[in-house]
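Final report, Chapter 2: Outcomes

The project's central promise was a pipeline that accepts a single protein chain and returns its three-dimensional structure in a standardized token representation, suitable for archiving and comparison. That pipeline is now operational. To close this chapter, we reproduce one record exactly as it appears in the project archive, with the input sequence first and the structure output second.
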Amino acid sequence: MGVSERKQRQHEELRNQIIECSREIVEEEGWANLSIRKIADAIEYSVPVIYKHFENKEAITAYFVQEGFQNLLNEVLAHIDSNASIEDRFQQLGMGYYHFAEKFPKHYEVMFGLGIPTCESARNVESINQLSGIFRSMIKELSHKNPNKEIDQCLKYRTLWSLLHGVVAFELLALPGVNPVCSAKALEDVVDGYVKSILF
């Protein structure tokens, strides 16, 4: 292995070490306690070394946002059966969305800390673009089942994100000791109401 290849490998290994250290800090202490200084101390490197890989804390969180949306996309795709009815696929989408949030709560927290994805974020992050495409395609297919009703598909797109996020946020933020309504039932009810708002 040549010198340049060795340096590149070492660069990638250190970058991965920074990412995994960041992941551990967030899991144990939360996003608010993640800092470049804390990462540097944990992996025993100087702060300037960290800045060679990530220009600031926001660049690290941006990495986790992209990773999170890719995982969300994978989870949604794994739950949707293309042979199922459009009504059932909406329920499957909802469960895939919720299962992702259950599995990756810290990712979900940083992904949606500033609200639902914008058109700009969909253009800049491929996984968000693909996920948005799935949402919009399903809304379009469902609206075709009621050709006599004028559907604002842009509004329904934002409403769908908001409903899914609302159920997830309610569960993730539930007070300790509180016994919430079964999340699966709540999600099923919300998605059912959403589908009916387009069909009837």
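Archive annotation: The domain at 3-55 is CATH 1.10.10.60 (Arc Repressor Mutant, subunit A).
This record, like all others produced under the grant, will remain available to the consortium after the project formally closes.
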